[in-house]
What we know:
The protein is α+β, with helices and mostly antiparallel strands. It is built from 14 helices and nine strands. Strands 3, 4, 5, 6, 7, 8 and 9 form a seven-stranded mixed beta sheet that branches. Strands 1-2 form a two-stranded parallel ribbon. Helix 2 (29-39) links the parallel strand 1 and strand 2.
Amino acid sequence: AECLESFVIPEVMGDIEVLIVNDGSKDGSVAIAESFVQRYPDTFRLIHKENGGHGSTINRGIREAAGRYFKVVDGDDWVDGPAFTALVSWLKKSESDAVVTNYYWYHHGTGKKELEIREPFPGVVYGKTYRFSESSQRFYMKMHGLTLRTEILKTRIPPIDEHCYYVDMEYVLYPIPWIETVTFLDEVVYMYRIDLPGQSMNIKSMCRNAENYDRVLKRLLDFYGTECRRPATEAVKTYLANALGAMAASRFKIFLSFPYSRQVKTQMMDFDRELKRTYPAVYASVRNRAVLALRKSGYLLYGPARLTFWAKERLKR
Length: 317
């Protein structure tokens, strides 16, 4: 209800459609959604489908979308009214392929808000249209700050993986070869709720769903390999390599989260060796200091690295 209520803004309701995708929900979400459709039938639309996971809801939303621009908002998050109003006003006149805004991390337990980043890159000019090919190494676009031209999503990208966690990265990276222009706005639009029990980016959830992470990472590495065989620009190749390098570093984090064992150490070494052999540019783009130290030591630092990771996780509690 908090999510949907955040779109009830008279100034913009005539310019937007809010697609509520019911992914086989068995709780009270459908009744809440129906109440908004009844109150505001020209803005809200409820779409029913069998359960298919986050990627499935995005795919359905893309197919159903009629607007020029598309933005994903998760059901437990919401948008800031004035900032969203400013975004919609800009989109009405924008020609950019991607429009990037800021977002808050909202700590569910404490109500504390903190900015994800202060600015996308030093010296950014808000409202300026940047050529992706000229500026892509200066910024990284994340899902909660991203609004994309719907046509790219409808006609260019493959379907997002279904029945799988961590597909946000597919949504963010699949459009990259087709993004020619990017605009940044100085608006904090999205409120991203964190610290929820069982949230997929919680380290315990990441351990449970390591196979899902591997599945998405493999899909994206295959995509990267395909793009590198095409006449893709160097900007696209480098952007994808850097993003996948960050994903590979997170895979090391998952390895280190498991109890100490020779088997895990061997799996980690095999993963890194295969990455270097198959995707050397991605391997070289990993900049995480812990990973670099592991590599330099020939993985002799696996034990201390595991202990350090465990200690940091304890301090977060």
